[in-house]
Amino acid sequence: MKTTWRSASLAASAVAVLALTTACGQETAPAAGSQSVGATAAAGGVVGVGASASPSNGYGADGQPGAAGQSAGKLAVSQNAELGKTLTDGTGRTLYRFDADTAEPPKSSCDGDCATAWPPVPADDATAGAGIDKALLGEVTRTDGSKQLTVGGWPAYRYAKDTKAGDIVGQGVGGKWFALAPDGKKATLAAKPGLSTRNDPKLGEIVVDKNGMTVYRFLKDEAWPKPVSACTGTCLEKWPAVAPVASDDTKGVQKKGLMNFTRPDGVKQQTINCWPIYTFSGDAAAGDTNGQGVGGTWYAVAPDGKPVGAPKQ
After folding, report:
1. What pLDDT digit, counting tens, does each position of 48-86 carry?
2. How many whole angstroms separate alpha carbon 176 and alpha carbon 168?
3. What is the pTM of this model?
4. Is 172's pLDDT higher than 70?
């Protein structure tokens, strides 16, 4: 098989204190206290579909059986409700690409433990099914001399935690692994609004960011008379602040109190109903909810800004 490949707002102004006071009085704030970083989930914390504890090997599939050597077969196009068209192998397993690789020229940077978590797809018997341009299929020689399938120049992989056809647990892992679209590009959630909602099977309707990552609230924050974040220093390393999102770049999220504020360190942070919002470093992929209930102070956010499942104040 011959190698072929193909080349692949912030918009929110400062708000006057008076406007803040008017917009942010929608909910009584709990008393501020010392920050709770919450490095581990509290007992009873909810874990979402495909979620896992933070992986120790950095690749997201410790101890999982690989699929090395499994043939690609006839590639197919699968329709995913959130990602659109994705590429699968002959058994329906999702194929992925790695941001650390290159397509021009094709080169794989995934070896050793990485290749155990993300088994390379052999190029030998790969054929193009309906909706796939066979000219985009190629191969690259790995460091061990084996031939790996490329799509649009990008080396293709499976994910060890995808155990059945249709699984797409590997999407967004580490911010570097993405499902392959039929043309070799990323089947990403980039087309999603800056903030939107999804229906979680355990939590109900919750807010997610543009990458599909769950958004959280910290019960020790304040919203009235103006937003105040109690998460600073090392807390922010585990709970990154969500950057400002334009009001017209949201879907399904309450508009009232949808604003940003400036933190003491000068960084601007987004709020929903004036409550500061965050993501969780322990969520490895879109759909994870590992931050739910951590420390009894961190909870996913409902479309109206309320913390989902939090004890009543």
Report:
1. 233 333 333 345 544 444 444 588 999 999 988 778 889
2. 14
3. 0.51
4. yes
Lowest mean pLDDT segment, chosen from 10-24, 42-56, 171-185: 42-56
Output the six-digit token pair for 53.
């504890």
What type of residue is 62? Answer: D
Cβ partners under 8 Å of residue 312, min gap 6: none
Q: Please name the amino acid found at residue 196.
A: S
HSE value, Cβ hemisphere, 13 Å, CA-based, for 298: 34
- Whether the predicted pLDDT of 151 surpasses 70: yes
3-state SS assignment for residue 157: strand
Q: What angle do CA 162, 280, 309 make, to 5 degrees?
A: 95
CB atoms inside a 10 Å sphere around CB 127 = 13
Q: Which amino acid is at 178?
A: F
Q: Which amino acid is at 309?
A: G
Beta carbons within 8 Å of 236's beta carbon, 6+ residues apart: none
**Identity at 109, one-letter amino acid code:** S
Least Cα distance to 284 among 156, 180, 113, 170 occurs for 170
Q: Which of 117, 129, 252, 135 is nearest to 196 (CA)?
A: 252
CB 257, CB 15: distance < 8 Å? no
